[in-house]
Amino acid sequence: MELAIIAIFVIGYTFIALEHPFRIDKAASALITGVLCWTLFVIGANEAPAHLGLDFQNYLAESGEGGSLKIFFEHRLLHHLSEISGILFFLLGAMTIVELVDAHEGFAVITDRIKTTNKVKLLWIVGVITFFLSAALDNLTTTIVMISLLRKLIDDKQTRWFFAGIVVISANAGGAWSPIGDVTTTMLWIGKQVSTVAIISNLIIPSIVCLVVPLLVLSFTMKGNVNRPLKAEGKEHYLSPTTDFERKIVFALGIAGLLFVPIFKTVTHLPPFMGMMLSLGMIWAFTELLHRTKNHEDKTPLSVIGVLRKIDTASVLFFLGILLAVSALQEVGLLRQLSVILKESLGDIYSINIAIGFLSSIIDNVPLVAASMGMYDIPTQEIINQDPAWFSNFVPDGNFWHFLAYCAGTGGSALIIGSAAGVAAMGLEKIDFIWYLKKISLLAILGYLAGAFTYILIHGNIFG
């Protein structure tokens, strides 16, 4: 059964990676893969996997005679679906807010201030803005925002793809050092493996190196200027019937709404999608009042109702399929087995985390970090005394957890499918998997390894 699930995942992943040669949309391949992986797991399992044994016993105790293995698996699927739906609603809310700002030409507030058309200068500007914006928002939302900005700045699709690749690297690097910048760092933060001040102070320099190295390489290889879209040349080209005040106020509300999400999560401890839905509802109500005096034809394109028609639903379904497939691998126990193999074969914490980073470019970093958190518990003082050199790395704010946050957050940039930011960029810009592999992957790996070795030089030695 396990081999069959692995085979389905590999075949599905191949169809996703080779979307254009096969001429099958990646969303279709992802949905088929996700559903088949769960189907094989439920049909082929005669007993609960060992790592779910205690959960199954608790379930039987609670359900009494009505409990069964199949219903238990259904509950496990619904458990994962609750997490997946939170991500999907978060994505839908963020995309809607960004599209609403775009419909009002709100991003002109930024694009009108970026005058340069020099590729290298623009590359640095985009990279730095993405890096710090990702730390304040999160890498997924920032990627959505920056892709929208790139459409105002660059006309040529291939050039825009290149910049989108740098946005993915920058967003992941910027998200790694902030407790709210990447979902995996947030997981470690909520689990108390890392604290706010420590994660920022320990990871900001390696994360900067992760961004700067690819930018330096491109500074010597990229030449020429970008062509700006006609629509971004001046206010006379705006197609939306909006005033300067409307553009600025909707842009400000959109950014404020996105920034509000992590604050809402911190204060209420509710899932991030709840804050995103609240922000969307408030901006929706405001724009309805803002345009209440306009006729229906002018008002509709500027309303959330009109904007929802432009949302890339296929990308949302792609997320659903991929996350379903990964959750099936997690339920079978394959990811936990992988964590054990890493410990036995690599030994030191730095090699383990670097390997996890590379794996996160193939398999979603969320279950990898979750598996790592389950595999390596926070030790008691008694356990630390047994082997201080090893177990001291796993205390709160220990080297393992900080380096895990960096590697899991930035290693996914190696493949466009390896991070939420990459998947969002792929869906929004229709970036080809093979193109990214040829043009961006090596740059991402160079930055990832440079930042990793910077961390090792500053905070420890490779022998842990």
Structural features, described:
With 464 residues, this protein is an all-alpha fold. The protein has a domain at 85-186 and 214-313. The protein has 25 helices and no strands. α5 packs parallel to α8 (139-153), α10 packs parallel to α19 (365-375) and α19 runs antiparallel to α22. The protein is globular, with a radius of gyration of 23 Å.
Question: What secondary-structure arrangement, pairings included, does this model have?
Answer:
Blueprint: H1 2-17, H2 19-22, H3 26-44, H4 53-63, H5 69-103, H6 108-111, H7 119-136, H8 139-153, H9 157-176, H10 183-190, H11 196-221, H12 244-268, H13 272-290, H14 296-299, H15 304-308, H16 313-332, H17 334-346, H18 349-359, H19 365-375, H20 381-386, H21 388-391, H22 399-410, H23 420-429, H24 433-439, H25 441-459
Write the element-wise H/E pattern from the N-terminal end onward.
HHHHHHHHHHHHHHHHHHHHHHHHH
Mean pLDDT: 83
The residue ranges in which pLDDT falls below 50 over 5 or more consecutive positions are: 232-238
What portion of the residues fall into strands of 2 or more residues? under 5%
The number of distinct helices, counting runs of at least 4 residues, comes to 25
Main β-sheet description: none
Strand element count: 0
Globular, elongated, flat, extended or rod-shaped: what is the shape?
globular
Distance between the termini: 37 Å
Helix content: over 70%
Work out the radius of gyration: 23 Å
The secondary-structure class comes to mainly alpha
